[in-house]
Automatic annotation (TrEMBL):
Matching InterPro entries: TCF25/Rqc1 (IPR006994), TPR-like_helical_dom_sf (IPR011990)
Protein name stated in the entry: Tetratricopeptide repeat protein
Superkingdom of source: Bacteria
Length: 279
């Protein structure tokens, strides 16, 4: 049986090594990853072949197969594979690895499967509504990969909001530059202020959010939420930013948060049309 992956410090930098057998399948892995979005079944066969040959040694093959499984309605198997891949990665960390002091750099290509496994398992925890575990993993990953090369910080807001850590979320939000703030994070900041019973600040933040994203503000006030398929005459491969479609998708992703606030619509309807500045 092939050896398991391991993390070791070489020349002052931590490096994640996978057994040499994975090298033999590298080109096949790249090919399968290139076609996995258009040729799902073909890529699945290649990923399974690689995993059969390498065992639990090829993290990218395991994570990529999980994506294919999730997209073809086999979420239970895909979820299990993500957790298995991440467990292999965690077992690769030596006891003397200190996340408060040590860094795992994305620029070292060998480290990318390890870092990707964190992002993948965090996404699965969020799907499972295990927000505490997801947040723990996010904080751990941001410690060892301070540049956030996987973009995991974008998953932090939803965890904080679902866990009711509104003050913590607002502190994080204030640290973001205006260019880093998104539709979701802006409206979550309004929700956080509302939940902290700061009505004047919440009103001002909603006005700010409504000015930047009027369609999302309108979506929150609707009683009947439906995807606006008629918004565009031509097909778009991606949902356009600022569109009604984007607003619906954003609302849908967090509908539980919005729908459980029974007095929210009444609060929103009382907010005046004129702009206001945050105190």
């Amino acid at each position: 049986m092939p050896r398991q992956p391991y993390l070791i410090k070489e020349g002052g930098s931590w490096m994640f090594y996978q057994p040499e057998i994975t090298v033999s399948y590298y080109q096949e892995l790249l090919h399968a990853m290139d076609i996995m979005h258009t040729q799902l079944l073909k890529s699945e066969r290649i990923f399974r072949k690689i995993i059969l040959a390498c065992g639990n040694c090829n993290i990218d093959a395991m994570l990529s197969l999980a994506v294919v499984l999730n997209r073809t309605g086999r979420q239970i198997e895909g979820n299990a594979l993500v957790h298995k891949a991440h467990l292999v990665c965690m077992e690769a960390l030596p006891p003397y690895f200190n996340p408060d002091q040590d860094d795992v750099y994305w620029c070292i290509l060998e480290n990318r499967p390890l870092l990707r496994s964190f992002h993948a398992v965090i996404t699965e925890y969020i799907k499972e509504k295990q927000y505490e575990r997801a947040l723990d993993k996010i904080n751990y990953l941001l410690k060892i990969n301070k540049n956030d090369d996987t973009g995991v910080a974008a998953l932090l807001p939803v965890c904080c909001i679902y866990l009711g850590r509104y003050a913590e979320y607002l502190e994080w939000y204030q640290q973001q530059s205006p260019l880093q703030r998104t539709l979701e994070t802006t409206f979550f900041s309004f929700l956080a202020l509302y939940k902290l019973d700061l009505p004047e600040q919440a009103k001002a933040r909603f006005l700010e959010a409504r000015k930047a994203y009027p369609n999302m503000a309108a979506e929150l006030l609707k009683s009947d939420h439906q995807f606006p398929a008629d918004e565009f005459k031509t097909h778009n491969t991606r949902i356009p930013a600022g569109s009604r479609q984007e607003a619906f998708v954003c609302w849908l992703a967090s509908r539980e948060l919005w729908q459980r606030e029974k007095e929210l619509k009444k609060f929103l309807k009382a907010i005046p049309k004129e702009t206001a500045d945050l105190p």
